Structure formats: C-alpha cells, structure tokens
Amino acid sequence: MPTVADVLFKKSERGGAGIVTVAPEMSVVDAVRVMNEHRIGSVIVVDRTSGKMVGIFTERDLLTRVVGEGREAKATRVADVMTKRVVCCSKQTSADELRSVIREKRVRHVPVVEEDRPVGMVSIGDLNMARTEDLEQTVQYLELYLRS
After folding, report:
1. Boundaries of domain holding 64
2. Domain CATH code at residue 140
3. pTM (predicted TM-score)
4. Which DSSP string do the residues of 76-90 spell out, in sequence order?
C-alpha cells in the first residue's frame, strides 16, 4: 500500500514535489501572484520566524472570504482570510487513508508536516495520478502473467 512519501517521491520525479509558502502578512494579491506563477491552487502559510505552518490559503478562500465578502485584495492580509484549521498528514500516512480524509473533509490540498513544519503538499490530483500509475502497473503484470 503506497504512502504519502511514495506519492511525494513520484511527484518529484515529474518535477513537482516542492512546496510553495507565503507569509501571513503578505497581501492576498501577492499570494495569488505566487499561486499563478507556480500554477497551483493553494499555498502553505508559514510564520517566517519559526518556520511553522500557521494556515493554508486556497482558491476557495479567495472566492469565499475575499471576493464573496467584497474585500479589497490589495489591502487584505493572507492571515485574515486563510484557513487556520488545516487538514494535514505525515509521510507515513497511507495514500488510501488520505484519499478518504480528502473525501470526508472536502479538501483538495493537504500539507505534509513533520514537527509542525511543512515538508510537502499532496493534492487529490497527485493521489489520482499515483492510483492510476499503480493500476497501470497491475494491468501490465496481469498481461504478462496471462501471456506466460
């Protein structure tokens, strides 16, 4: 059974294992620029002094707490609109367990943390990709078995 560590490893092989962080005092506009630059749907909010995760800022936060409330994006700090109670996992979490948590909690991005510090990010897309690769490998093994 693959773990989150396996998913992160495969993600890194495709060139996408890095994490992107922003500071809580950053403006929403600047955080969105970072997200656009990296073509991602969320960023981990990290206290620059301690290096610890203090929240996550997602496209959903932007829509519900900024646009939906009519806030001025340039004048709004990330800390004021980020999600503070973040669903997290560890590298040892199984991919199937994380998939269930994502479905149950209705989130799309889950930070991977060690000692309150982010070490990775897994999205539902990453889990789907890992599952697809696993199923393709199983099909290949079965085809080889049937041919022999």
Report:
1. 4-147
2. 3.10.580.10
3. 0.85
4. -BHHHHSBSS---B-
